[in-house]
Design a protein that fits this description.
The complex is a heterodimer of chains A (499) and B (495). Chain A is mainly α. In chain A, 75% of the residues lie in helices and 3% in strands. Chain A is built from 21 helices and 2 strands. In chain A, β1 and β2 (73-79) form a beta hairpin. In chain A, α3 (81-100) runs antiparallel to α11 (241-266). Chain B contains 20 helices and 4 strands. Chain B has helices at 5-8, 13-31, 37-55, 73-94, 97-100, 104-123, 127-145, 152-183, 188-196, 203-221, 229-236, 239-264, 282-301, 307-327, 331-362, 379-393, 399-413, 417-442, 457-475, 478-486, and strands at residues 62-64, 69-71, 267-268, 274-275. Classes of the chains: A mainly alpha (499), B mainly alpha (495). The interface between A and B is medium-sized, with 30 and 26 residues.
Chain lengths: 499, 495
């Protein structure tokens, strides 16, 4: 299957066109067309996963032709170990989120068309190897996201949607400037990321620092890293369940993916110099601050949103460590965070659909009424806490082992936060699912088949990766080791040695 | 080549068609019973003029009418753009409820006359000619702005326009007289020769005269601080005229500005960069004006609740963006500016067209009239307006993004980092107000008192063409880029 990457990116676009041209009488077809498109995408992703050669760092499944030759812009798609794991995650989460959307009952055609556009944009970001193409996909994602939050969201949806849009646009315009800088002041005028990376030593260190920071801000807003994180809780709280799932499951990964793909590969010297501060320290702040904020929340969904911020901190800390364990663990954590947080948001959506509120204090004893739901939540919470045998344990431990060798002090803080995490998750579990049963909720049905169908595959993956993490780590190893080597081989400057 | 009067006519076809067309319209106005047909005839005339421009050969260039006008690829670009603007304006006028109540013959004749004058502005090779063309454009614009005789806003707008215009052109001609005094000529090439010849250059005097001249040209492109007329005029004028002023008049202003400041005042180095006169810091001044223009335009737009006024401030900001290509003093920058002006034409015309469609149906221009537009039958205009506004913001998949991309590329390449930062921050700010109508159309639910929005076939057609152009050219923009590249050539000729 040649053009697998083009196919996986543009199948949703085809689905979008079909959905938009459906006659009003067939509007129920929209969800099934989306499901088929997402299913096909997942199959292709699995095919790519199966045929991926883990022994090379070169881009695979390459699709390339000149798009705008006068400006050296090409349509260039390809995957390496880092992106292939993200392609898999994106296909999986999009498939799940189509089914999580079945409850939408207003303007379905528009909803599913936008969902498909979002899907294509996200997939495109992970498979693009031309910076211009990458940027186009990066920005195209914003439009469907705005409308999906703004039209189908909660009471304060307008505020949340525009806040999301403004924040991320601010980030992307900085990326645009950085991209142009890399284009004009490199060894040759090109947007080809593989060529830019090969000529990385051409840029002076002063130039690298400026561009690095511009790119970092652009990507950090997506992660979201402290202090650019404030849009995330708002967006999550107002977004419909499926969109929260995508937001937490895939969108946040783009930030850290971008840092690895651009900052690390193209600006290794600046990365070597600045990572400890911008990724290490800020990552640690994310971990601790996110957990503390989560503890203070009264809204169930907001709590999960802050916990998501906290867990993304491990990714930042891990990639800043420049050790094989740390960086492998970080990318594995990206994958695990995707599956676990997606579960958590689906679980929040389940109770919100029934109770129409998310006040933690308003619940109690739900385990009596909805035992399967409570059980599933327990599983997801344990996964979130990083219990051994579940996937997040492996990735967080790898991150901590790796980070310990480079930043012992930060690692102490990060590791200690595990207690806070366990604290807020167990406390939440206790308040919602245990204790005296609130009679108000009598008659609530347990998980429906559809809800179960969205949760069980994720739970299985969490379990499998808990005992056999090599399924993903095997993909990453070669590419990440190479990337790490590139950064470490640049001379460490004075600032880096402070640490 | 310096062509005499008779030989010049060979390169003067589009203008002759327009001139003949104006006379034809005046005569037909007396003869025809169904005055509504006059619009169709005007449209035909404008289309013929555009076709003639499209067929013009790309020659090294020539002087026409004893060095009064110049014929080169740069002039072709701007005349094509202005003709396109006139076609859109006439097309909109035919479908506009406001314009139907006016005297058709005069209206279209003056609209074509204004087009004619803008052509001359784009071709001027002489300060006197430039001044006459600019005044010609202004006079016709005043009349067109005040064409809704029974509407107080329209009249007020025309008066404001007239007063500002009088001051600006008076200032400009005073500046021109200084240039004449310094160089002894009004001819652009002679001025360039006199100012660049080694010798004592009266730096301060030249600078002052440039500032004075800038008043007149800046007034046409609506750059700060000569922008104050724009919001009132754009709001008061009939919507097709607003569109024409926003895209056509602005393009003509840019044409004159570029022709005066580049070939007349600077010299081209081998590397494709332009060298300003030593000691005369007009690039610094324009850099400042450019940044202030976009910032002020965007900040003022944030507060607007009337769509025409919002788009008026937006067009001030857009002029600021286009100026980015101007102030970097390179051929890259000029090409980016030309590309952006074309992009701006497509998206701004589209946005004003949707405003007119809504005004036709509801009689309202305020943002509240758009509440829930997508959910009360107006999904097509709502989606079209969304495309245009995203393009104005500079979101990918639209021609607006590509335009901004080239502008920022030129800015980064010229190492104007502060300008780049100011430019992108402005893009972010502008998102907020461009999103407001979109928010109102999609996120708000209609009250029920907004009235239905219907679109007639012809407006649908134009809207479709502009919306498709915005997206298709955003994906495959090579033809526009080639056109802009071809058009960077100025004919200066021997002294």
């Amino acid at each position: 299957m040649s053009h697998a990457l083009t196919l996986i990116t543009f199948i949703p676009v085809a689905a979008m066109v079909i959905i938009l041209s459906l006659p009003p009488a067939l509007k129920d077809g929209a969800k099934w067309i989306s499901a088929v498109a997402a299913g096909l995408q997942l199959l292709i992703a699995l095919w790519i996963f199966h045929h991926f050669d883990t022994t090379t760092t070169a881009a695979q499944f390459v699709d390339k032709f000149a798009w705008m030759p006068t400006y050296h812009i090409s349509y260039f798609m390809g995957v390496d170990g880092i992106s292939v794991s993200m392609v898999l995650l994106t296909a999986l989460i999009c498939f799940i989120s189509v089914f999580a959307s079945f409850g939408i009952n207003r303007a379905e055609k528009a909803y599913y068309a936008l969902l498909m556009m979002l899907d294509a944009g996200m997939m495109g970001v992970f498979v693009s190897l031309d910076f211009f193409l990458f940027y186009i996909f990066w920005e195209v994602m914003l439009l469907p996201m705005y409308f999906l939050i703004g039209v189908w969201g909660g009471p304060r949806r307008e505020y949340a949607a525009i806040k999301f849009f403004l924040y991320t646009l601010l980030g992307s315009v900085l990326i645009l400037l950085a991209m142009l800088g890399l284009y004009f002041y490199g060894a040759q005028n090109t947007f080809d990321m593989t060529v830019l990376a090969a000529n990385a030593s051409h840029y002076t260190i002063g130039f690298q620092r400026v561009v690095w920071i511009a790119l970092f801000i652009g990507f950090a807003i997506k992660i979201p890293a402290f202090p650019f994180h404030t849009w995330l809780p708002d967006a999550h709280v107002e977004a419909p369940t499926a969109i929260s799932v995508i937001l937490a499951g895939v969108l946040l990964k783009m930030g850290t993916y971008g840092i690895l793909r651009v900052n690390f590969a193209i600006l290794p010297a600046a990365t070597h110099e600045l990572a400890w501060l911008f990724l290490g320290v800020i990552g640690t702040i994310n971990i601790v601050y996110g957990a503390m904020c989560a503890m203070a929340q009264t809204d169930y969904k907001k709590l999960i949103a802050y916990s998501s911020i906290s867990h993304m901190g491990y990714v930042m800390l891990g990639i800043a460590s420049f050790t094989a364990a740390g960086i492998d663990g970080a990318v594995l954590q990206m994958f695990n965070h995707g599956t676990i947080t997606a579960m958590l948001f689906i679980l929040v959506g389940v109770i919100y659909d029934r109770a129409h509120h998310r006040e933690i204090a308003g619940f109690g004893g739900l385990a009596q009424q909805m035992p399967i739901y409570a059980g599933m939540t327990g599983f997801a919470f344990f996964a979130g806490m990083g219990l051994p045998g579940l996937s997040a344990f492996i990735s967080e431990v790898l991150v901590l082992i790796g980070a310990w060798q480079t930043y012992p002090l930060m690692t102490v803080f990060a590791a200690a936060t595990a207690i806070l995490t366990a604290g807020y998750l167990l406390w939440t579990y206790q308040r919602i699912y245990l204790g005296p049963f609130n009679e108000k909720y009598k008659g609530f049905a347990d998980l429906s088949f559809r809800e179960g169908f969205t949760l069980v595959p994720l739970a299985i993956i969490v379990l499998i990766l808990g005992v056999y993490p090599h399924a993903i780590l095997g993909l990453l190893d070669t590419s990440l080791a190479h990337l790490n080597q590139v950064v470490l081989s640049t001379p460490a400057s004075a600032i880096a040695l402070l640490h | 080549m310096d062509l005499g009067n008779y030989a010049s006519l060979a390169h003067f076809g589009p203008e002759l068609v327009l001139g003949g067309g104006i006379l034809l319209l005046v005569i037909l106005d007396l003869l025809m019973a169904d005055k509504r047909r006059l619009g169709d005839i005007a449209l035909l005339i404008a289309v013929v003029a555009l076709l003639l421009i499209a067929m013009e050969p790309v020659t090294p260039g020539a002087w026409l009418f004893h060095r009064m006008l110049v014929f080169d690829s740069f002039a072709i670009f701007f005349r094509a753009l202005i003709a396109l603007a006139a076609i859109v304006a006439i097309w909109m006028s035919i479908g506009s409820e406001e314009v139907l109540g006016c005297d058709q013959g005069e209206y279209y004749a003056i609209l074509l006359a204004s087009t004619f004058a803008m052509f001359l502005m784009a071709e001027s090779a002489n300060l006197l000619m430039a001044y006459l063309a600019l005044e010609f454009v202004s006079l016709t614009s005043y009349i067109l702005t005040g064409f809704l005789r029974h509407n107080r806003r329209s009249l007020e707008a025309a008066l404001k326009y007239l007063i500002y215009g009088g001051v600006a052109s008076g200032t400009m001609i005073y500046g021109m007289s200084w240039i004449f005094g310094i160089t002894g000529s009004l001819d652009f090439t002679v001025i360039n020769h006199a100012l660049t010849t080694p010798g004592a250059l009266p730096v301060l005097a030249v600078f002052i005269s440039l500032v004075l001249i800038l008043a007149g040209m800046g007034y046409k492109v609506a750059s700060v601080p000569f922008h104050m007329w724009a919001p009132d005029v754009y709001q008061g004028a009939p919507i097709p005229i607003t569109t024409f002023l926003a895209i056509g008049s602005k393009a003509a202003g840019f044409a004159l500005l570029t022709r005066f400041f580049f070939p007349a005042l600077s010299s081209l180095t081998a590397a494709g960069n332009w060298q300003a006169l030593k000691g005369v810091d007009w690039p610094e001044l324009l850099l400042f004006i450019c940044m202030i223009t976009m910032t002020l335009g965007n900040l003022a737009a944030l507060q607007q609740s009337n769509m025409k006024r919002l788009l008026a401030y937006s067009s001030i900001a857009q002029a600021g963006y286009a100026l980015m290509g101007f102030v970097v003093l390179s051929n890259d920058g000029i090409r980016a500016m030309l590309f952006y002006l074309f992009a701006y034409y497509v998206m701004d015309a589209g946005a004003f067209l949707v405003v007119m469609i809504v005004a036709n149906s509801t009689g309202r221009e305020d943002i509240d009239a758009y509440r829930g537009l997508a959910w009360r039958g107006g999904i097509v205009p709502a989606v079209a307006l969304t495309i245009f506004l995203f393009s104005l913001t500079g979101i990918p998949l639209t021609i607006g993004f590509i335009g901004k991309f080239y502008l920022f590329a030129a800015v980064i390449r010229g190492r104007f980092y502060l300008l780049a930062i100011v430019g992108v921050l402005n893009s972010v700010v502008s998102l907020y107000y461009y999103m407001r109508p979109i928010k109102t159309m999609f996120l708000d639910t209609p009250n029920g008192d907004e009235g239905a929005v219907t679109v007639d076939f012809w407006n649908y057609g134009l809207m479709g063409v502009l919306a498709c152009a915005t997206i298709v050219l955003g994906l495959y923009w090579a033809p526009v880029l080639a056109f802009a590249t071809r058009s960077m050539h100025f004919f200066t000729g021997p002294v």
